[in-house]
Amino acid sequence: MQGMASIPWRRIAITGASSGLGRALAEACASPGVTLHLAGRDAGRLSASAAACRARGATVQETTLDVRDQAACGGWIAAMEGLDLLIANAGISGGTGGQSEPADQVQAIFATNVQGVLNTALPALEKMAAQAPDSRGIRGQVGVVSSVAAFVAAPGAAAYCASKAAVQNWAEATDATERARGLRLHAICPGYIRTPMTAVNAFPMPFMLEPEDAARRTLAGLAAGRTRIAYPWPTYAVSRLAGALPLSIRAWLASRVPAKPVSEKV
Question: Which domains does the chain have, with CATH numbers?
Fold first, then answer.
């Protein structure tokens, strides 16, 4: 996918940039004059993502990073000369497999999807607050990748849904107060995206998006300044409706579809 020439950012950091939505976002932003700070846990895949972005003319700094490491994340942000946009995309998934959710999986999901987001977003906000505002009056933007799963407490993926709800609520609530400092936060809530994370799901995943389409929608929402960027709208609408159902009905429905599998990488 070719870089989006209209993006208003020139210094961009993306976590989880080695595959899936993270890589698609990196490639969509890559163009001459753009500096990309790409982070991921898999050095080999991250190198391939960085090479693809360099081929599009971007200046790329790649860093092997585990977002659960608070000190490492703070150092990564501090080393950047300036930062216009951080997309906190790194995350993991996991379900129950129809049984009790493993304790180590629950801990890993919250450590990565919640604490990992804060480990990059909080130092990024402080760095951005010290910068001069751009032509829009904005000093910096932080996009937090949540999910439409944030709007429904699915019994088959309790920790995942809860973790995504936590960062979605945090980003939207914090945006209201950080605007006074010229900062913006955005909760990015995609539906199903064709990635290795969703490839293991045995249940129906309607309105599946390709990573490139999801990246385009995400960047368009960020550029437009939307606090909540939820897409595609049918999946978002169904999630809001399902989230409004009584808990007993949700449990009954969950018992009649294949459960999300337990993660093999925690």
Answer: 11-254 (3.40.50.720)
- Of 160, 192, 231, 236, which residue is the catalytic one? 160
Identity of the residue numbered 77: I
Residue 65 · residue 73 · CB < 8 Å: yes
Alpha-helical regions (H) of the chain: 20-29, 43-55, 70-78, 103-110, 116-129, 158-178, 196-199, 211-224, 233-243, 247-254
**How far apart (Å, rounded) are the C-alpha atoms in residues 75 and 125?**
14
- Which pLDDT value is given to residue 100? 86
- Among this protein's residues, is 160 annotated catalytic? yes
Q: Express each pLDDT in 38-83 by its tens digit.
A: 999 999 999 999 999 999 999 999 999 999 999 999 999 999 999 9
Distance CA 129, CA 135 (A): 15
